[in-house]
Specification:
It is built from 6 helices and 2 strands; from the N terminus they run ααααααββ. By secondary structure, it is mainly alpha-helical.
């Protein structure tokens, strides 16, 4: 994890004022993805995203966002496929906001809709 933090702006390296380029971001995500792979973390994040009501909605939403972000970098997809994952594993759901239709209660209630 120290390798990842050092590569981020303000992460303790001398070049902390340098703008984060796409190459730097891809390198950081590659290190993060590799650490996640080595710890079987991708399986865990996928499991959380499909757990339904076992976890709080914020946890499920965060896991879905992590998976969508990881899948969004095309350069990393080869590694996922090598490990036996495919697009369906990473794009597990869509986070939506379910509106409460009760009169006098305009606050939205979070809900998750499966794809």
């Amino acid at each position: 994890m120290k390798d990842i933090v050092i590569r981020l702006p303000g992460g303790g390296s001398d070049n902390s004022v340098k703008a984060l380029s796409m190459e730097s971001l891809a390198a950081v995500l590659h290190l993060f993805m590799r650490a996640l792979r080595n710890a079987n973390g991708i399986d865990a994040v996928i499991g959380i995203s499909k757990a339904g009501h076992k976890y709080p909605p914020a946890v499920i939403k965060a896991s879905i966002m992590v998976l969508h972000t990881l899948w969004g970098f095309r350069d990393l997809r080869h590694f996922y496929r090598t490990d036996g994952f495919d697009e369906r594993d990473f794009l597990t759901g869509v986070w939506t906001v379910k509106r409460n239709t009760t009169p006098g209660n305009p606050k939205p209630a979070p809900a998750m809709a499966s794809m």
